[in-house]
Amino acid sequence: MAGAEEELAGRQAELEPVVSLVDVLEEDEELENEACAVLGGSDAEKCSYSQGLVKRQALYACSTCTPEGEEPAGICLACSYECHGSHKLFELYTKRNFRCDCGNSKFKNLECKLFPEKAKTNSCNKYNDNFFGLYCICKRPYPDPEDEVPDEMIQCVVCEDWFHGRHLGDIPPENGDFQEMVCQACMKRCSFLWVYAAQLAVRKMSAEDDGQVLSVDGTGDQEVTKPDSGGDALREEAPEHRNDAVKDAKAEQNNEPCTSSSSESELQTVFTNQSIKTESQSSCRLQELKTKPFLKKDTATYWPLNWRSKLCTCQDCMKMYEELDVLFLTDECDTVLAYENKGKIDQATDRRDPLMDTLNSMNRVQQVELICEYNDLKTELKDYLRRFADEGTVVKREDIQQFFEEFQSKKRRRVDGMQYYCS
């Protein structure tokens, strides 16, 4: 009977997933880093309202206070803890240029505990279906209990909505080798990005692909293979052509007598203006790229690290970004990666070593004794765990408890066996 029970226990142990101590530690570290990345750049104790429109912060929506049908509202990290701790919240990850709504006129029965002196509304805040727990073009919750298809969600860097990978027109690169994504709707609204996509996107929208050349000025799609056909791209006049034009003009000037002293000056002014115009055009990276074929598809695009630094920042382009409300694309610090890195750095700076704190509170003798005890513990624990690794067995809770009981027992025997002498 005992043998049968042991066999049954052995079979059950085989069926149960075995997780090593290393796996637990690695998973714990991964979760800690993820939380640090998302929350580390936000203050968990003070409402962010006093900071105005925060460049980027972790946000939440409270379906308890502002259910669907009411006005959308967003709350900061600190308010999610202090004012909405027992409420049902939607985690919005991070969003840019947002001011905390907690306790304003959108919350009928709640006053903010951290910063009650808020304006009735924050007119500069932008809201979407995410604030009611709905995402993507399918307007479904996440996770979706009715969706049996495993699919990750990706945030658009422009509109900041979240999308299923299968609903982006072009599935994400399998290797995940991209930093940011721009959804179909934002690519259509910001059509100038197709010019850059041909050169910068992870999947190049180039002439070799099947597709249509897009008119950047918004006049529509055209099946064009030459960059200058149909007015789709502006081409700067070739330098040798400009030189020939200058020579011809000077030759005509030499063959005809000058009737006034201003003739040469006027001609020089013409060439100078042409030169300034040419330099102005050539300094625009967008205009340079428009001389090459580019394609427009009804898909999202995926972009590598630091792609924003390649965008033109000339006066005309900056004006275009402002009109399209995408000036943030020229700011490298706007990226989620920059926010996450800031959170990790801040967290690492604030994180204190408890052992060092303890050592600093002790005198010299006590410090030496503690360090010796710590080294003994580390050495014995390493030797103890090595046995399990060599035998290929799993470390159980009882094993760890047994180790510390034996360690404490050894320590007491060492202390009791010490002899003290008076000098």
UniProtKB/TrEMBL annotation:
Point to the regions of Polar residues compositional bias.
254-274
One GO term of the biological process aspect: protein ubiquitination
**Matching SUPFAM superfamilies:** FYVE/PHD zinc finger
Q: Where are the zinc fingers (UBR-type)?
A: 45-117
Q: Looking at the UniProt record for this protein, which Gene Ontology cellular component terms does it annotate, in alphabetical order?
A: cytoplasm
Pfam families tied to this protein: zf-UBR
InterPro entries in alphabetical order: UBR7, UBR7-like_UBR-box, Znf_FYVE_PHD, Znf_RING/FYVE/PHD, Znf_UBR
Highest taxon listed in the record's lineage = Eukaryota
Biased-composition ranges, Basic and acidic residues, are: 233-253
Question: What UniProt keywords apply to this chain's record, in alphabetical order?
Answer: Isopeptide bond, Metal-binding, Phosphoprotein, Transferase, Ubl conjugation, Ubl conjugation pathway, Zinc, Zinc-finger
Catalytic activity field = S-ubiquitinyl-[E2 ubiquitin-conjugating enzyme]-L-cysteine + [acceptor protein]-L-lysine = [E2 ubiquitin-conjugating enzyme]-L-cysteine + N(6)-ubiquitinyl-[acceptor protein]-L-lysine
Q: Name one GO molecular function term.
A: ubiquitin protein ligase activity
UBR-type domain: which residues? 45-117
Give yes or no: UniProt keyword Nucleotide-binding. no
State its role.
Answer: E3 ubiquitin-protein ligase which is a component of the N-end rule pathway. Recognizes and binds to proteins bearing specific N-terminal residues that are destabilizing according to the N-end rule, leading to their ubiquitination and subsequent degradation.
Q: What is this protein called?
A: Putative E3 ubiquitin-protein ligase UBR7
Q: Which gene encodes it?
A: Ubr7
